[in-house]
Amino acid sequence: GGPRPRPGQEVSVKVLGALEDGGLVERDPRLTFVPGHGDVVQALELGVPTMQPGEVSFFLAACRYAYGRPGREPDVPPEAPLLFEVTLLEVRDGPDPQPLPPAARLRLGSQRRERGNFHFARGDFAAALRSYRLALHALDGPAIVPPGPEEEEELQEQRVKCLNNCAAAELKLEGAEEALAACEAALRISPDNGRALLRRGQLLAEQGRDAEAALVLRRALQLDPASKVIHAELSRLAKRQSPPSS
């Protein structure tokens, strides 16, 4: 009884998950999450919002809604469908963002970035992008106390990783402008980040901004002189700019 979860609300569920042979691979007496935040498999993301408090449901999930083609070491084989038994225990308004100590922000950001990597590896780039953005939100959230120098450095490193991952996901979703913006945000934090420099140079070249692209790629080459990819990109630009011989 009671209304189904609305967007942004937090839910608590009891979950059992089993393979086709009956092997139990999920057991959580009280799993709490916000649907849409990408913190659980899609079977739960999509299924739980259809339920009412107190309801018990069974979801037979094809692999793409569970752990995808790779599976999950060591207990979920590749491309394995799963049967979930889910009891919706509670629905409540989502928690307001709370100030967190730097260590908790780092931990939450890392968890969400890893969740994004999981989605990216299985080809769900929209879910990956959502997780990377949530990771950035956690890293940028309010803090109980200001981070110390080492913590601030680690927060910045994590932000750059998330922004580079956002750019990769945006490219998979054909969002070139959004990918370029993510690269530029990463470079504002870390001007010598080789990954962001290379991708920014490639994106500028795709837009026909060859002079800007060449400057960025030469900077990337200074940082990594042995990179065959950067040499190839610069060679391609040079050929494009050279007039054809008569």
The CATH architecture term of the largest domain is Alpha Horseshoe
Low-confidence runs of at least 5 consecutive residues: none
Q: What is the helical fraction, as a range of percent?
A: 40-55%
Report the biggest beta sheet as strand number plus sense, adding barrel if it closes.
4 strands, antiparallel
Work out the helix count: 8
Distance between the termini: 81 Å
Rg, please? Answer: 22 Å
What is the CATH third-level topology name of the largest domain? Answer: Serine Threonine Protein Phosphatase 5, Tetratricopeptide repeat
Topology (SSEs and partners):
Elements: E1 10-18, E2 24-33, H1 42-47, E3 56-61, E4 82-92, H2 102-121, H3 125-139, H4 149-172, H5 176-189, H6 194-206, H7 210-223, H8 228-241
Antiparallel strand pairs: 1-2, 1-4, 3-4
Helix pairs in contact: 2-3, 2-4, 3-4, 4-5, 5-6, 6-7, 7-8
Outline of the structure:
It is an enzyme of class 5 (isomerase). By secondary structure, the protein is an alpha+beta fold.
Please describe what this structure looks like.
- Helices cover 49% and strands 15% of the residues.
- By secondary structure, the chain is of the alpha+beta class.
- The chain has 3 domains: 10-92, Chitinase A, domain 3 (Roll); 96-190, Tetratricopeptide repeat domain (Serine Threonine Protein Phosphatase 5, Tetratricopeptide repeat), CATH 1.25.40.10; 191-240, no CATH class.
- It has a 4-stranded antiparallel β-sheet with strand order 2-1-4-3.
- A hairpin with a 5-residue loop joins strand 1 (10-18) and strand 2 (24-33).
- The radius of gyration is 22 Å and the shape is elongated.
- The mean pLDDT is 90.
